[in-house]
Amino acid sequence: MRAVRFEKTGGPEVLELVDVDLPEPKPGQVRVRHEAIGINFIDTYHRTGLYPVKLPCTPGGEAAGVVEALGEGVTRLKIGDRVAYSGGFGAYAEANVVAADRTVRIPDGVDSRTAAASLLKGMTVEALLCRTYPVKAGETILVHAAAGGVGQIMVQWAKAIGAEVIATVGSEAKAAKARELGADHVILYREQDVAAEVRRITGGKGVPVAYDSVGKETFEGTLGSLARRGLFVTFGNASGPVPPFAPGRLAQGGSLYLTRPTLFDYIVTPEELTASAGALFGMIGSGKVKIEIGQTFALADARRAHEALEGRNTVGASLLIP
């Protein structure tokens, strides 16, 4: 089969399309023939070495397709089942072997492209909005990168809860997209003072929670946007890692909290995984959350996909199609 891998860390140019042996499932595993592969920012962190990986590496932890082989002892799935998975490596390929209990069945009415475009991002949103900080109707929240893959789902899901959403984006085109998704207020974070705008919108109070996947560029604005005892949720590094800072700054800002969650601590057990995916697919099925697949790339074009993602030239979700 064909797969994308890198033998050294670096820029998008280290990604290569190679021929490899079709993997056989071990006990407890299934082989999934991919129909669509999710592209996520964490894939670039692995490629650059920001998050160390064993080399050579086939990146990607999210895909959807059809079960075509069962390992010994697998009884919860059968050949032909439509499934999606999120986690691990090896998704940038025509097929992959994964633990059967780390897959989720794709319900009728959800196609493979939608599942691959939404599973990791959507479960991330479920964890952040429902468990990291359980957002309540009537609360005002700050969502950075609102036109991105996670941001689009987060804005819609927060509006479904009944929250007031302040969204930040990097361009006028993305501002229009955020408004279309339901954002109540939109800030161009490269041109406007985010903290000042948030204070103006909230009558000086700030927000109880801010969700920041941008990192270095937006750190100061996010910190200055929080209400007393507010929670800073940093969950990505699109512009680079958050710089070191003295914990005393949290006290100076009003006894603030900061957390750095990762999805996989929220879907540790098969039960947690099933519940999170079920909540996501329920939101999609209800029509409250619509998944925009902004761009698709052939498997051979993984390099170009990473260039577009890191250049912030994507809108919504991105997929590789094997």
Which helices and strands appear, and what pairs or packs with what?
Elements: E1 2-5, E2 16-19, E3 29-39, H1 41-48, E4 62-70, E5 82-86, E6 95-99, E7 103-105, H2 112-132, E8 140-143, H3 149-161, E9 164-169, H4 172-181, E10 185-188, H5 194-201, E11 207-212, H6 219-223, E12 226-234, H7 248-252, E13 257-259, H8 270-286, E14 293-298, H9 302-310, E15 317-321
Parallel strand pairs: 8-9, 8-11, 9-10, 11-12, 12-13, 14-15
Antiparallel strand pairs: 1-2, 3-4, 3-6, 3-15, 4-5, 5-7
Helix pairs in contact: 2-3, 2-8
Overview features:
322 residues, alpha/beta, Quinone Oxidoreductase, Chain A, domain 1, Rossmann fold, 7-stranded mixed sheet, 6-stranded parallel sheet, 30% helix, globular
Structure, described:
The protein has two domains: 2-119 and 270-321, Medium-chain alcohol dehydrogenases, catalytic domain (Quinone Oxidoreductase, Chain A, domain 1, Alpha-Beta Complex), CATH 3.90.180.10; 137-260, Rossmann fold. Helices cover 30% and strands 26% of the residues. The protein has nine helices and 15 strands. It has helices at residues 41-48, 112-132, 149-161, 172-181, 194-201, 219-223, 248-252, 270-286, 302-310; strands at residues 2-5, 16-19, 29-39, 62-70, 82-86, 95-99, 103-105, 140-143, 164-169, 185-188, 207-212, 226-234, 257-259, 293-298, 317-321. Strands 3, 4, 5, 6, 7, 14 and 15 form a seven-stranded mixed β-sheet that branches. The protein has a six-stranded parallel β-sheet with strand order 10-9-8-11-12-13, sandwiched between helices. It has a two-stranded antiparallel sheet with strand order 1-2. Strand 12 (226-234), helix 7 and strand 13 form a beta-alpha-beta unit. Helix 2 packs across helix 3. 44% of the residues are buried.
